[in-house]
Design a protein that fits this description.
The protein is mainly beta. The protein has two domains: 204 residues, no CATH class; 112 residues, Sandwich (Immunoglobulin-like), CATH 2.60.40. 7% of the residues lie in helices and 44% in strands. It is built from two helices and 23 strands. Strands 1, 2, 4, 7, 8, 10 and 13 form a seven-stranded antiparallel sheet that branches. It has a six-stranded antiparallel sheet with strand order 6-5-9-3-11-12. A hairpin with a 3-residue loop joins strand 11 and strand 12. The radius of gyration is 26 Å and the shape is elongated. It binds calcium ion (3 copies). One calcium ion binds next to strand 3.
């Protein structure tokens, strides 16, 4: 990469950081752990963004909005007082061949973390050598804008800190025998080059709520109305998921994820047929058949619910009226 291009990428990074600083939203406390590599009390990595930068990967099996990051660490010297302030920078990267790739976001965290001494140790005391132990701290940062982690997609998290005195250590989580568990850069904290190394780091990603479901339009028994369902029927109920100008049902739906019935959680998918435009708007729709006996409908029900996910893991749901016939 030539230096001019690098300069402009740096400038873009600075602009992104600048924009983020305008948001001073204090989101509600995080509620759910979306991903965790718990502290191992086995030592840690130096990571200051100057001589060395450490990045670790994560992958979540469903699409989720990350709104808080928590991590564990301590300080290099055990004979110095705890630094009054920290100066953290957190970066999120896309994956590129098992290493940090494109920079997604930079968070100029500075000293804006909640820092709490846990009473535990990054490196435990060793009575034999007289080592009194490296105290462990837990840090937490609420993201000024949420980060959308797509399902089953690998990302990289780098954390660097230059405290007001001493140096900072990012605690190790599990020991990893393969030199591919973290990546380290000894030159540039954004552009690398990155070198694989042993062991994982201790951090946790939290989500306030999962990605809101995508609402889709469905037509139970396309071509007929009312949508009569005979409880004694031993066959199937066709359900059409309609495309729109912004939603391509045949292309965007993970067909095997679909469930349909009284609550929407009933697993009775028989099969999806070839695409057809059931409402004549020129957009191909997806028609899937569900076994009537698996739908759980009862006399008096008035709504049928379809649930599933998109191919990228975003939950979706849709409803249509039903008329239950005994
Ligand atoms: Ca890792
Ligand atoms: Ca219908
Ligand atoms: Ca259509």
């Amino acid at each position: 990469m030539n230096s001019r291009r690098k300069y402009w990428q740096y400038l873009a990074t600075i602009i992104i950081v600048g924009r983020l600083m305008f948001f001073s939203i204090t989101a509600a406390a995080a509620e759910t752990i979306a991903y965790e590599q718990s502290p191992g009390h086995l030592g840690g990595f130096s990571t200051d963004g100057q001589g060395i930068t450490v990045a670790d990967d994560f992958q979540i099996d469903h699409s989720t909005l990350i709104n808080n990051i928590t991590w564990w660490g301590g300080y290099g010297s055990t004979n110095l007082p705890t630094p009054p302030t920290d100066n953290f920078t957190i970066r999120l990267f896309a994956d590129s061949g098992g290493q940090p790739g494109a920079l997604i976001q930079t968070f100029a965290v500075g000293n804006n973390t909640s820092r709490t001494a846990t009473g535990d140790f990054v490196n435990p005391p060793d009575p034999n050598s007289g080592f009194e132990g490296r105290p462990e701290f837990i840090y937490s940062f609420t993201l000024p804008i949420t980060f959308q982690a797509e399902a089953n997609t690998r990302y990289w998290l780098s954390i660097v800190n230059i405290p007001s005195l001493d140096s900072w250590i990012w605690e190790v989580s599990t020991l990893c025998p393969n030199p591919t568990c973290v990546q380290r850069s000894f030159t540039d904290p954004v552009f690398g080059p990155w070198e694989p190394y042993y062991d994982n780091t201790a951090f946790q990603l939290q989500t306030g709520e999962d990605t809101p479901p995508l609402s889709v339009n469905i037509d139970i028994k396309p071509g007929s109305f009312p949508n009569s369902i005979n409880l004694s029927n031993r066959g199937i109920i066709p359900v059409a998921i309609l495309s729109s100008s912004t939603f391509n049902a045949p292309g965007q739906i993970n067909k095997t994820s679909l469930t349909f019935g009284r609550t929407g959680g009933e697993s009775g998918l028989a099969r999806c047929s070839s695409y057809q435009d059931v409402n004549g708007d020129g957009l191909p729709d997806l028609v899937c058949n569900f076994t009537t006996q698996a739908t759980g409908f009862r006399l008096g029900d008035t709504v049928g619910v379809l649930k599933g996910t998109t191919v990228t893991g975003t939950p979706l749901s849709g409803t249509d009226s039903v008329r239950i016939v005994p």
